[in-house]
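Exam revision sheet. Question 4 asks you to relate a sequence to its structure. Input first:
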Amino acid sequence: MIDSKKVLAVVPARRGSKGLPFKNIRPLGGKPLLAWPIEAARKSHHVDRVLISTEDAEFAAIAQAAGADAPFLRPAELASDTSPSIDFLLHALDTLAAADEHYDYVALLEPTSPLTEASDIDAALETLVARRDEAEAIVGVTALTANHPAFAVRIAAGGFIQPHAALSFDQMPRRQDIEQLYSLDGSLYISTTTALRRERGFYHQKTLPYVTPRWKSFEVDDLVDFICIEAMLAHRDLIIQTEG
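Answer key, structure tokens:
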């Protein structure tokens, strides 16, 4: 709980994955990918229950072994490539509510962001609750540096490059002069249950940013990501010392 409010953490794990088959149960650092957000949520000081949302009994059993609850399976129609996240979240909330179990906050923790820690979940929740009079959601973002759109180019006619945002290369800004922008990094999503139902999502005018360091923003989409994240896990202490 936080401020006498109950918090539900939902970890989604579909069986299907076109980019990397069985990605959500692929071993990362000695444990299934889906175990990372489950363990982070279980170590949180504020999360009351950790739930796996999956259509697959095998995945549910693996999640239970990692410490998540699996009181039901997600309907198959909510587990396709095109199924919106809001649908399986509302399914989980409605199923629990039917058993007279209600939550004030919902945290969505994707297995594809395995570097999110309990301290991130707690800090984000505390930030959201501290600003509860004006904010209803908070999501992970990370600063854009090398990939800032000010330095983007297009391949134009004849195969030559042109600046995307400037009229010419000599008008492109210096790095120290550009506006700091951020990208949505998928590291965490938290909302009041009321706002989630009303807005049908985490992004709206009352959404706060939770700024993550660059190394925590890495997501697992393919094998290259797995290899990079495993390397970061092996050198986590050094990364924290140098980057934070």
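Marking note for examiners. The CA atoms of residues 107 and 215 lie 21 Å apart.
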